[in-house]
Amino acid sequence: MKRIILGIIVGLILFVVFVFAGGSEYLIKFGQKTEKAGERLQSYEKKIKKDAEKIVEGSGKAAKDIVEGAKKAAKKATDDAVEEAVEKTTESAKESIKKVVDDITGE
After folding, report:
1. Residue 32: which domain range?
2. pLDDT score of 107
3. How confident is the model at residue 51 (pLDDT cuts 50, 70, 90)?
4. Does the pTM exceed 0.70?
5. How many domains does the chain have?
6. For residue 84, how many other CB atoms are within 10 A of its CB?
């Protein structure tokens, strides 16, 4: 409790010293510098937002290109796999038919 009261008293003393020592002039100057810094930050923010929009647009196009490439690769792989399966099935069927014909003819 003593520390809280002591903190309030010290805070009031510092406030009074600040006001009597020309604190208002300091605050005005500080405020002007803060405004200038805010304006500069605002211009940086606009530039960053524009750049970010360009990056997003570019990445969207790149993502579409990647998806299209993946679709083409998947289709080609599927087509190749189907073709290979058909060839193997055809060969297997030919061998089975040959066996049956050999069994029938007695060879």
Report:
1. 2-105
2. 62
3. confident
4. no
5. 1
6. 10
